[in-house]
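task queued by scheduler; priority normal; single chain, no ligands, no partner chains; default sampling; output format set to C-alpha cells
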Amino acid sequence: MHIDSPDRRLIHRAALAALGAAALPSAHAQAWPTKPIRIFCGFAPGGTTDPYARMLGDYMSQKLGVPVVVENRVGAGGFISLEALSRAAPDGYTIGVTTSTSVWGSRALYRKLPFEADKDFTPISLLPVGPLLMAVPTDSPAKTVKDWVEIAKTKQTSMASYGQASVPHLAAADFNSRFGTKIEVIHYKGEGPMWIDVVSGVVQGGIGSYVALSPHLAKGTVRVLASVGSEKSPKLPQVTSFVSQGFEGQVFKLDGCLAMLAPAGTPADIVKRMGDLFVEAAESPKGLALREAFAIDAKPTTTAVAQQRWRDESPIWVRLTEQTGIKLD
C-alpha cells in the first residue's frame, strides 16, 4: 500500500479546490441582484439620455427579476448625478448614464470637479446616439459645408450649440482655427430652441441629433449638409460625412455616445453582466423602437469595448476641449 505524504495530500486538495472554484460562477454573480437597482440620469426627460435609461432599465428588470428605477438627478450639466454616483456603494445596485462631455470634456472646462472620472467610475457600456448632423435653413445659399465655411470667411456667421464643449462648439473652433473664420457660437438650453432659431435664420447653422431635427426635416425648413463620425444616418443615407467632404479635424471623426457607468470598485463580473444585458436590449422590441425613432444603427458596446474606448477617446475629447481655451469656473 502506498501512503501519500501530508505535503502531497495538501497539494492534491488544493488542486481539487481550484478546479471546483473554476467550474462555479463567481459568488458575486450568484448573489446579485437581490434588491432594486437604481439608474441615475443627469438629464431631464426628452432628448436621448432619459429614454435610453428607461429602455435599458425595463430590459434589466425583465431579465433580472428585480425593479430597476430611473432617478433623474438633473442639474449642473450632469454633475449632480455624477457626484452622487461617485459616492454610491460599488455593489451593482447603483449605476448612472451621462454624456461623454460630462465625463470627458468637462475636465478641460473646469479647474475643479466633484469627481475624478478615471478614478471614480467604471465604464459598463457606451450607448450610440447616431451620427450628429449639421443643418442650415433651406433658404441658406450654402449647399455644402465648404460653401458654408466660405460664406463665414466674408460674413458674420453663427453656429447653434446645445452646450459648452459640445460637438457644434468644437466644430466651430476647428473651422476658426483652420480657415481663419470668426464663427460665433450661440449656446442653447437644449436642441428644441436651438433648431427653431436655425430654421428662422437667427443663427446660420447648427449641429445636433436626428430626433430633434426630424420635425423640421418633415416640414422642409432645414437642409442637412453633413454628418459627424463614421456612421451614416439610416434615415438620411444620402448625407455624407464631414471627413468624406475633406474636413480632417478630429472632432469630425469621433462617434458621439452616452456613457453607462458604475462606481469604481463594482465587481467586474457584475459590470460585465450588465454590459451584456445592454447589448441584448438593443434587439428587444423597446430597444428596436428606440433605435428606429432616434435613427441609431449601432448597438451599445460590450464592457470590454467601452473600457478600451474610454482609455483611447477620453484624452482626445479633453485635448479638443482644451484647444477652445474656455474655463467655466
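post-processing summary
- The first strand starts at residue 37 and ends at 41.
- Strands lie at 37-41, 68-72, 94-99, 121-128, 133-137, 158-161, 184-187, 205-208, 222-227, 257-263.
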